[in-house]
């Protein structure tokens, strides 16, 4: 998704999430209790969910809302649906 490289606000948000995830993962290297480990994994999961949400919104905006080509809109819709239908 090359258009994301040109979206400074999204790129900055993604980099901030990445930095928070790296900090969380660094914490996991320490000897943690079970509850601390679960909280750390939960925090990583939440950050990844926020990244996914941001990318999804950008994908919807760029590939559905602004796209004139019907086949490309259909492809974008199928890509989004695949995210939610993937059971692996």
Please name the defining characteristics of this protein.
88 residues, mainly alpha, 3 helices, 0% strand, elongated
Give me a quick take on this structure.
Helix content is 78%, strand content 0%. It is built from three helices and no strands.
Helices and strands in order:
Blueprint: H1 8-28, H2 34-65, H3 70-85
Helix pairs in contact: 1-2, 2-3
Overall pLDDT, averaged?
Answer: 79
Number-wise, the strands total 0
Helix content: over 70%
- Strand percentage, roughly? under 5%
> What would you call the shape?
elongated
Question: Can you count the helices?
Answer: 3
Q: Please describe the biggest sheet, giving its number of strands, its sense, and whether it closes into a barrel.
A: none
Structural class assignment: mainly alpha
Q: What distance separates the N and C termini?
A: 23 Å
As a whole number of angstroms, the C-alpha radius of gyration is 17 Å
Poorly predicted spans: none
The SSE order reads HHH
Overview of this protein structure:
- With 88 residues, the protein is an all-alpha fold.
- The chain is built from 3 helices and no strands.
- The longest helix has 32 residues, at 34-65.
